[in-house]
Task: inverse folding
């Protein structure tokens, strides 16, 4: 995609750094295993022992993390390890708090499903109630060989975070790190593995890709590693894939043909959620990338349902948000990921087919912010065109909610801090072909942009002097074609930063789109007065001057833009159009060809070359560059 900042948990709070992670990892579908069936039978007629009856559950369900060198803070592989925590284990398994698998049974079967059966929970309870006997050690199950270090093998590329110092006190910390990737060309990625670096305090991470310098610029403005605030709207999930990490969620490799593209200049943008431990902690995660040799054959789309106008009154125990979307094409659902903060309690997502039947996507009746997962159906969920995707989240902002982070409860609004609230249901889908993918993306994008605008406006109301927020929402307004609202926000940003050339440039761009060209020219000229080497401002000013008929000035600024950045395809395209108007068809076609060479497949440049060649043929003038480009080259 693209991505906030607990208090009184009563008796369960002490469990977070201890038993909170018991049974954390690896519920691998023990239902039906002969050992557990036998154990259940044993429990009714003979003494239940750790070695014969309980250890198989613990090893299979907990061992991948609760082992020496695992992600969890302690091991549960021996009788001694488990014996000292028996009462807590019985309690958290009875309440369903552990293992951390939140989806309701009967509402979808998911890969890696982590759930204890009622018989298994009862077996643990009876064992504890009868003083937890050890039994014969010869009955212990053989321990599997878990991988050491990286779970997916040795990465092809390792990205290391700068070391961050987390203070001992305070509330949850959400830090956004922007990381260059050490590759020298476009690569294709089939797997990504996040290692937290300090599992005591790192709770989860969201990972996106920014192909622009926007996130890097935000990071550079903060003297410490990373920055606080919102994830830039330019940081997205690449090619429709989820990326994130929560404790116990094991990484996977994508199937052949599903790798995603990583450009050489793109940055990893990672929002890390950390919880102070009471002492100073050093945090330095790493990310491993596993590369594929072939480009993707199929690209999924990422759909997001949700609301960003959340405003929950204090004491409201049943605040509800809803959203829906009608699919314009056939799709298959490959993954869902709900996201909310501490006040959410009931989380539902479903699909209503054109015939009125319903298919569940996800149902969590006891949401817990601390245990978030990507849920991947065992088999893709097939949904025909005309299906309505829907979500409904219910929040409890009352004092009776043990997870409410504010006591007494206070009004909660949408925001990325954990004390705020959010409500999103991400849905990964595959279409039948690239044409349907393009149609779905084109149809869904305005919905997402409009909701993002709602969220930005909510945040701006509480932080009206934040220029970066005004810049971000203005860009979203421009994407939706709402230039007047973009102008208003860029004007506010300029008021806050009157000597910033980029602020004048941004306002000029919005004024141009709004058709206020004289004002746009003045703002571009002011940007160039502050920064004469601003190549983009020269190019955009040339375009506006050309539309005003001032060709000589337009060409002068166009040439300066190319002198400053000769590899800018947009500047070559502007020069081509200006020279065409001046009558220099040969010069115009040369610049159009260069734009197409620098940006292969760019439709405006391709159309410009074809149009200019037609003009040359009609006038009888020989195309001097005809030997340098083949007709098929226009469609690279």
Result:
């Amino acid at each position: 995609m693209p991505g906030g900042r607990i208090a009184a948990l009563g008796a369960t709070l002490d469990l977070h750094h201890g038993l909170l992670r018991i049974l954390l990892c690896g519920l691998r579908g023990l239902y039906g295993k002969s050992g557990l069936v036998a154990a259940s039978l044993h429990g009714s007629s003979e003494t239940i022992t750790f070695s014969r009856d309980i250890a198989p559950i613990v090893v299979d369900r907990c061992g991948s993390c609760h082992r020496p060198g695992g992600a969890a803070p302690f091991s549960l592989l021996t009788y001694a390890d488990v014996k000292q925590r028996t009462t807590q284990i019985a309690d958290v398994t009875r309440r369903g708090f552990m293992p951390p698998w939140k989806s309701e049974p009967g509402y979808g079967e998911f890969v890696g499903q982590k759930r204890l059966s009622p018989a298994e929970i009862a077996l643990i309870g009876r064992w504890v109630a009868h003083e937890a006997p050890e039994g014969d050690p010869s009955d212990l199950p053989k321990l599997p060989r878990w991988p050491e270090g990286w779970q997916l093998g040795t990465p092809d590329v390792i990205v290391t975070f700068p070391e961050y110092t987390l203070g001992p006190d305070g509330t949850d910390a959400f830090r956004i790190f922007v990381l260059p990737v050490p590759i020298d060309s476009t690569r294709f990625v089939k797997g990504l593995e996040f290692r937290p670096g300090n599992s005591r305090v790192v709770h989860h991470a969201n990972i996106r890709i920014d192909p622009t310098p926007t996130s890097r610029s935000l990071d550079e403005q903060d003297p410490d590693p990373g920055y606080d605030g919102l994830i830039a709207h330019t940081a997205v999930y690449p090619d429709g894939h989820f990326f994130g990490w929560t404790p116990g969620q094991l990484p996977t490799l994508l199937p052949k043909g599903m790798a995603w593209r990583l450009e050489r200049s793109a940055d990893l943008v990672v929002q890390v959620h950390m919880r102070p431990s009471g002492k100073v902690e050093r945090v330095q995660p790493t990310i491993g990338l596993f590369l594929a040799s072939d480009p993707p054959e199929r690209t999924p789309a990422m759909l997001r349902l949700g609301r960003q106008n959340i405003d929950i009154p204090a004491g409201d125990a049943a605040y509800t948000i809803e959203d829906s979307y009608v699919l314009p094409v056939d799709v298959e659902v490959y993954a869902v990921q709900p996201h909310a903060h501490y006040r959410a309690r009931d989380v539902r997502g479903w699909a209503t087919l054109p015939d009125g039947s319903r298919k569940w996507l996800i149902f969590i009746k006891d949401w817990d912010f601390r245990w978030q997962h990507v849920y991947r159906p065992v088999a893709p969920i097939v949904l025909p065109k005309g299906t309505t995707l829907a979500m409904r989240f219910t929040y409890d902002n009352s004092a009776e909610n043990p997870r409410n982070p504010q006591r007494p409860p206070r009004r909660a609004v949408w925001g990325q801090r954990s004390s705020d609230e959010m409500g999103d249901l991400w849905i990964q889908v595959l279409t039948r072909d690239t044409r349907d993918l393009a149609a779905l993306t084109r149809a869904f994008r305005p919905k997402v942009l409009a909701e993002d605008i709602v969220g930005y406006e909510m945040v701006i109301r509480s932080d009206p002097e934040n220029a970066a927020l005004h810049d971000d929402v203005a860009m979203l307004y421009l994407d939706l074609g709402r230039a007047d609202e973009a102008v208003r926000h860029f004007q506010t940003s300029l008021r806050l930063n009157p000597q910033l050339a980029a602020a004048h440039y941004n306002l000029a761009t919005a004024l141009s789109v709004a058709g206020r060209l004289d004002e746009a020219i003045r703002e571009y000229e002011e940007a160039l007065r502050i920064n004469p080497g601003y190549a983009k401002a020269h190019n955009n000013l040339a375009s506006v001057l050309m539309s005003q008929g001032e060709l000589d000035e337009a060409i002068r600024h166009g040439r300066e833009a190319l002198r400053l950045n000769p590899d800018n395809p947009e500047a070559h395209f502007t020069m081509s159009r200006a020279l065409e108007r001046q009558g220099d068809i040969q010069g115009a076609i040369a610049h159009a060809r260069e734009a197409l060479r620098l940006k292969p497949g760019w439709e405006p440049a391709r159309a410009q070359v074809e149009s200019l060649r037609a003009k040359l043929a009609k006038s009888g003038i020989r195309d001097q560059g005809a030997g340098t480009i083949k007709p098929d080259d226009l469609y690279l």
Remarks:
- The longest helix spans residues 434-462.
